[in-house]
Amino acid sequence: MSDHISGPRALAEPIADITDVFAFPSPETPGNLVLVLNTLPFAPPDGRFSDGLIYRLRLRPLTPAGGPPGSAPFAVGTEELVFDCVFSDQSPEAGPQSGFCRTPAGDEVTFGVGDPEGGKGAGVRAFAGPRWDPFILDAPAALKTIATGELAFTDPSAIFLDGKNVLSIVVELDCAQLLGRTDGLVGLVAETLTRGRLTIRIERTGRPEVKNLLLGPKQFDPVNRDLEIRDLYNMEDGFHLADGYLGAYRARLNANLAFWDGLDGTVDWPADEHGDHPLTKLVLADQLAFDIGKPYQEHGSFLEIERAALAGQEHRTFGGRALNDDVMDAFFTLLINAGNGPVIRDGVDRSSRPASSVFPYLSPANPTPPQPPEHV
What we know:
Largest sheet: 8 strands, antiparallel
Distance between the termini: 11 Å
Strand content: 15-25%
């Protein structure tokens, strides 16, 4: 879940599957920003990165749009900063794997895969290797909710396959040196792309659960009920959707957002005169938004920038997403009661192996991870 197995292509080529993206202030070094890109659901503890992929982190400035309710929340700037990570031969016979992160200035910071110290240089510290998957959700209960039309969360509950691993890339950067500033609103999109003369986007991710819980279910969509839409969405530019399938995305989101809103028996997000859900354009602006000049507040930063934009107010926190933050409660609460009722809890609050405050932050990989279910 989150972005695990987010479409048929991700299921067929899991090495390119982005599971989660995080952005938070460095707990070790004030003024530094930490970006995390996790891939390969159910990764083995000795997993290796693909030598045929580019693992890309894209940053662009955002400005609150200040439009009417239901409009896109942010205007996206044209200036873009890109961090690309690539890796050596992935075959075990080739020996220890290495990689490098290329900065927007063209500098290359090298590292050995699995080395917890990572590599340093040019304002960047980079790590790559297998790590404990930090995602917090009772995923079977979320899927049961969709299947039955009734909230299926229990308290307490369990994290889906707690102890599974991912392949993680951590890029910590000096904001003043790399971004040229120490404040301001930024949008993050992570991508996996083919590496070679022809570069093709395979997957991209901004906020969690856009594809699996908001675009994945087909049964509520009266327009495109037979269309598996997630692979099409994955190929889009996360900062600029093309016109071709925009109507299909909008119809799917209008239907599924209305489903989530109705789970408590109350309509907190009435559709506008065109039948559009008030959150549809916000969801389609699928970047992880954060403000590097503001503090991160656990259990309060995630979606705070978006909620402030919806209310026409100034945001107060960093936004973004940290490794130990149980963001899904905020996600479900926004969808189901718009914050007008109790917090919607899925019954799990923290990983059994929380992330640390020391680089590379994610917990070491589980040497004996649970096996994926047969249907995955």
